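Sample intake sheet
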Amino acid sequence: MAENTQYTEDNIRSLDWKEHIRMRPGMYIGKLGDGSSADDGIYILVKEVIDNSIDEFVMGSGKTIEVSIQGERVTVRDYGRGIPLGKVVDVVSKMNTGGKYDSRAFKKSVGLNGVGTKAVNALSSYFRVESTRDGKSASAEFSRGELNDQEMLEETSRRKGTKMTFVPDGEIFKNFKFRPEYVARMLKNYVYLNPGLTIMFNGEKFFSENGLKDLLSENILDTDRLYPIIHLRSEDIEVAITHSRTQYSEEYHSFVNGQNTTQGGTHLAAFREALVKTVREFYGKNYEASDIRKSIVSAIAIKVMEPVFESQTKTKLGSTDMGGDLPTVRTFINDFK
């Protein structure tokens, strides 16, 4: 017989923000890993910090982001507006606190849920945030989410912007090691999606003038392209397409609001459908969908207002609507010319 266990008030427990993140890190950053795979948790931590700097660039503030990884220590510095000095601690340690809930300020932002940097803070043995604006500076240091020190400088010559430094917690990320090639690939995607942005990584410069066209140019040799890359873009959508002479599989690179959606989602499904529809209508023939898409190498990026992803790691888009006065994701992509 099953043992009759007691269920009383003593069984009910409330966790504070950092305890919950540390107890269930997978809910916030996906798998943990040791850095040997590109989607391991330590790279998600890097991405969450960089996403905030990218949002500043998108809003027209700061054209350069500096990323440094020395051993286990990661530093990300942008030259955006800087976090409001009185909120430096709250922004990285109070759940659901951020400037992106107001759609007017960050209507097509990546980090909309106010969780990202809190997760980085809670999962780091050392975390430091520093903000400079209006000739003043504020900083705070944490360990595993616990505030250890904070400082306010009433006068500083530092350039405006935000600087975050963290060391992933070895208690959670066992025997981890950063692979520079995985970080470099992530940073390249950022510059492809944000032409005009410069990212410096350990002294190496990443920059793109032609967006997704540059992404495909790097992924498929000129001699392997069946035809020159078709590159189209509008305010909320960008597409690059070619076909390979040698590979038979379909290859897609998809993005939403600057986020690499490695598992696709509603936008990729709509793109694959629109591609077939366009070719059929142009030639007036009902070609097989698999024949049209075979050997394709393509990339699509869209911007969605308040996107809904299927997990905190944001690798698959679940939104069916573009937001605002725009139509559904499917209609928007199908009607794009």
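Comment: Residues 16 and 122 are 11 Å apart (CA to CA). The chain has two domains: 17-207, 212-335.
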